[in-house]
Amino acid sequence: MSMKILVFGLGALGTVYSCLLQQQGHEITGVDHEPVVKAIQQHGVQVKGIWGEHKAVLNQVVSSLDELKEQDFDIIIISVKSYETDEVARQLRNIISANTYLVLAQNGYGNFETASRYIPPQQIILGRVIFGSETISAGEAMVTVIADDVILGSPDNLIDMELLQQFAEIFSRAGIPTRASSDIMRYVWGKIIYNSALNPLGAILEVPYGKLAEISYSKDLMDQVIEEIFSVLKASHQSTMWENAAAYRKDFYAQLVPVTAAHHASMLQDIQRGRKTEIDSLNGAVVELGRKYGIDTPVNKYITLMLKAKEAMQI
Q1: DSSP letter at 150?
Q2: Active site amino acids
Q3: DSSP H helical segments within 184-265, as ranges?
Q4: What's the pTM?
Q5: 52 and 99 share one domain
């Protein structure tokens, strides 16, 4: 069955979703800034890398929701940076219908809570995306790695599991391996812990992830970041796939870091391009949750401040 899908944000991730879903026969509308829109209108969208080579011409590409010819969407995928979620959700509340589902394909903590200020939570699906994609040029992306299926879920289980599985099947048929879960936050937090330990330190020290694990000083910082996060999770009664910080660190150094040892932090790329980073939805969010539950998070706070300082010096 063909679906009408809006992809808000045509960076690396949005390009992958829009291209593969359009190829599968769905009607895709893309939204992004004017330079990106012009490039995609001229050349379409392309995906390369481990999932093969794909090209597609989207049904519609606009720089403003006011330009939309079609507003009756089945699915809206948000693939913008976490700090843009508030503004995007605010805009989307004017076009979203009772039968539209919002899929948050983003990093970090707090996107669901932010979107819920404007969109009914029973229409919001949280996605844990753990495949890697990089922007080659506007509308052209390369898929470089996949660690696991994309996971879809409703944090408060407000959406029927059968419907979530239908959406997962739609994405899987398009070539994006996806499954549904009734405990999405366990998966989301697994990604947050990984990103919080590696991404900001990789940006501050300007080294690939593997080097962070090789040097005892940076390894000690990552250990403390992880320890603080698990203390916050325990205080908030949020479970993960690991019993405690020690169990997580065992998997982290034995399995998670080695497969991305050569990877450079996305935050470093953001800073080098003069863009804001998503630190507030990672270590910054840990600090805020720690404050809420009375847990000290000095290392996460220090790393957040250091990253913000570096960011401010470049922008």
Answers
A1: E
A2: 191
A3: 184-205, 209-214, 216-235, 245-251, 257-259
A4: 0.93
A5: yes
